[in-house]
Write a structure and sequence with these properties.
Four Helix Bundle (Hemerythrin (Met), subunit A); 3-stranded mixed β-sheet; mainly alpha; about 170 residues
Length: about 170
């Protein structure tokens, strides 16, 4: 991964605040609005929410692996073998309510923040990751936290774009 671009304390606080930021955008949406998308071929707000939470849940294992076994090899080949659209279909993103997923996101992020704060060198601990069609790479806990912080913020922006497109 690249060199960290932010302060670990600030980034961890942003990571911890991600669920509240997402919920603030979703707070007043109706079931109908959760099914809005920019085009017929793009994901709905509901699907984006499930995608955020599932990605966060999957990468939680990368953080735990790095904190527990820095010599280990992390592979998400099972996940990367299929396109995102297929996972969305397999995991029924289009029809599931978002509340259980949001609860999982809050719980996972709270759990991870508390764990990271308990381990003095947690931010620098790392795990080897086997990426698809690329060489193995070492990724730190800080890298994963930064990546997941950017991921949720990027999709919050996508949700805001969908809402703006439909409320003009």
């Amino acid at each position: 991964m690249t060199e960290p671009t932010s302060n670990p304390v600030t980034t961890l606080a942003q990571y911890a605040d991600g669920p509240a930021q997402l919920e603030a955008v979703l707070n007043s949406l109706t079931e109908t609005e959760l099914n809005l998308a920019t085009t017929m071929d793009s994901w709905t707000i509901r699907q984006i929410v499930h995608h955020i939470v599932d990605g966060d849940d999957i990468w939680k294992m990368g953080i735990k692996a790095a904190l527990g076994n820095q010599e280990g090899l992390l592979s998400f080949q099972w996940y990367w073998d299929k396109p995102q659209t297929e996972w969305a279909e397999n995991w029924k993103y289009a029809s599931r309510p978002i509340e259980p997923s949001l609860a999982l996101l809050r719980a996972n992020r709270g759990h991870m923040v508390e764990l990271i704060q308990q381990i003095p060198d947690a931010w620098e601990r790392s795990i080897r990751v086997k990426w698809p069609q690329r060489a193995e790479e070492r990724i730190t806990v800080g890298d994963v936290i930064e990546m997941q912080t950017r991921h949720i913020l990027g999709h919050i922006s996508d949700i805001q774009t969908i809402l703006q497109a439909h409320h003009q």
